[in-house]
Amino acid sequence: MKFNSPFKAEVAGTGIYLPEKIVTNRDLEKILDTSDDWIRARTGIQERRVAREDESASVLAVNAARAALAEARLEPDRIDMIIVCTSTPDVLYPSTACYVQKELGAFRSAAYDISAVCSGFVFGLSIAEQFLKAGRYQHILVIGSEVNSRIVDWTDRSTCILFGDGAGAAVIKRVETSERKGVLSSHIYSDGTQTDILGVPGGIGRTPISHASIDEKQYFIKMVGNATFKFAVKRMSDVALEALEYNGFTTKDVDLMIPHQANKRIIDAVGERLEVGPEKIFVNIEKYGNTAAASIPIALHEARQCGRIKPGNLVLLTVLGAGLTWGAALIRW
Ligand code: COA
Is-contact 61 145, C-beta < 8 A? Predict the structure, then answer.
């Protein structure tokens, strides 16, 4: 059912923060049985960022949020809601968003986290879209922030090469207009039958912290790489098509596709399935690896910075993450 609202949800500002420390593939060659050639060929990644010990997800998030608020020319006390999308929160609770709220001084906002891993930002954007189009709120800050370096096993060459740290934020604003612009629609899904192919099994409920669970490295990312790869290609393509069809478009109408930056080969395969040429696909995985929930907002910001998104452009976001979770959003700029 289509939801016809007099309100639209527009991106009013974006910002990013990347930790300074760069870890290249060559650096990883020194600690792992791997090679720069293998990592580039299988993933497209050349380097990734690693946060300092004092840079937790909330610290990264606050830096990205300040940049987004500056572009939106918005004072923190005008934010109605802060949604932090993260799978590497500062602590189990309170939410990372509450730390962000305190640092920003955004005390009028409801602040909470959502956990949809690499799909997080599109899930967060979808929540923001609903609140804004319902007319309930005016400004919502959606942030993807991750310190994946804390949960990768640096001795596991099949996972640690993939991930990186970073944060991206967007101020989403309610506007009243008859024009067809802003977030046109968002489409989010989950499949709980695939919880075993990608996750961090150790945790409070199922595997209470013990010497044994630490020795078994239960608090690190475990992944069945090729199964995740296949799901990513199919789900990201299918949901992208759904978003286009829902709005009466085809892939030919897309000006820029921003896919989740998990693996360059996944991105290429999605492009081929959708028949969207490389010139219309934004890629920055070579610099940052997979930054999970931060991947889309970092890419969105960089795409805007380098002039790849112009007023009137149709921008398609498509993602997949652990859960499994997946989703797409279509934005008319
Ligand atoms: N360096 C060198 N060799 C490596 C390696 C590394 N960093 N990692 C794995 N290998 C080896 C494997 O041990 C295996 O060796 P074997 O044939 O002797 O057993 C070989 O390379 C092939 O492994 P495989 O897992 O089949 O490679 P792949 O082509 O599937 O690539 C991934 C592995 C992880 C890069 C790929 O599966 C992937 O990107 N999956 C999706 C991951 C993802 O996107 N996750 C997040 C989703 S949000």
Answer: yes
Ligand 1 pocket residue status of 229, Cβ below 6 Å: yes
Q: Is 321 in the pocket of ligand 1 (CB under 6 A)?
A: yes
Residue 207 has a pLDDT of 87
The closest residue, in CA terms, to atom 31 on ligand 1 is 42
Q: Is the CB of 296 under 6 A from ligand 1?
A: no
CB of 161 closer than 6 angstroms to any ligand 1 atom: yes
Q: In a 3-state reduction of DSSP, which class is residue 281?
A: strand
Q: What is the DSSP string of 252-312?
A: GG-SEEEE--S-HHHHHHHHHHHT--GGGB---HHHH-B-GGGHHHHHHHHHHHTT---TT
What H or E segment, with its residue span, contains residue 152?
Answer: none
Q: Indicate if the pLDDT at residue 200 is higher than 90.
A: yes
Tokens of 221: 């990312």
116 C-alpha to center of ligand 1: Å?
A: 23
Asked if residue 145 lies in contact with residue 167, where contact means CB atoms within 8 angstroms, the answer is yes
Q: How far is the CA of 245 from the centre of ligand 1 (A)?
A: 34
277-297: b or e for each residue (b if 16 or more CB lie within 10 Å)? eeebbbbbbebbbbbbbbbbb
Q: CA dist 101 to 78, 139, 147, Å?
A: 12, 14, 19
141: nearest Cα among 154, 152, 131: 131
Distance 198 CA to ligand 1 centre (A): 13
Return the residue matching tokens 């999970």: 292
pTM beyond 0.85: yes
